[in-house]
Amino acid sequence: MRLLAVVVNYKTPKMLHRFADSYQEFVKTEDSRLVVVDVESDYTDDSHSGVDADIFLWSQDNIGFARSVNLGVQTGLGILDADIIGIFNADTAFVNSECITTTLKCFSDDNVGVVGPRQVDSKNRVTHAGFYNENGTIVGPGWHERNVGQYISVMDAHYVSGSAMFVRRTVWDELSSCESFLDASPEADGAMLVTPHYYEDRFLCEHALAHGHRVIYNGSGTMLHEWHASSPVGSWVDQDHKESRKIFSNACRVHGF
After folding, report:
1. What domains does the chain contain, in order, with CATH numbers?
2. Predicted TM-score of the model (pTM)
3. Fewer CB within 10 Å: C terminus or N terminus of the chain?
């Protein structure tokens, strides 16, 4: 399968280098391409020199995760007719080739639309093990548990983290052109719901579920996720969260889920 990998970097050039190096070591093939979207960036800065990417996009403004991903995917599809789209934060990295091989195995089921890997940090703590709907309550087990090899099942999830997720290309196109989605987010130029700061990954997964596609947590494939706070603590961050929740709730309402 042809893989388009889009990584969004926000002021973490060292992590971006690590991600790109891990992509080159464990992922890159003749049928893959890497797109870097660097936001709130000084593109004259040489801190990004040496990052081996097929396309490097800069924005001096923080255009947000959703716009960055949508831009990266749209641009990347111009050079690769991808089957699978990988979406990543720069604070992640591949640790072996199993993440890709097991992800592709998940996509061998044509009903699977989105896949998200297990994630741990460099302190050997779990940072993502999927989110699940338990009697109407969304739960995300495992946060910062000591990694002792738990959460390794492959199972249906309510949503998976946007820090590292894979989307079937046909599903991406389907969600991007959904009339209800475009009514709710007319400025979106791709499947990611445009919000100030949050809920982009959750909406994409819930949207895929609403269209009849499975969302899979892939515990058999692990990535490093050195989670960091992308924004400083402050009232504007809290306000972004409130505004994002309104946008998310409205998009769900418009779509009827």
Report:
1. 3-255 (3.90.550.10)
2. 0.95
3. C
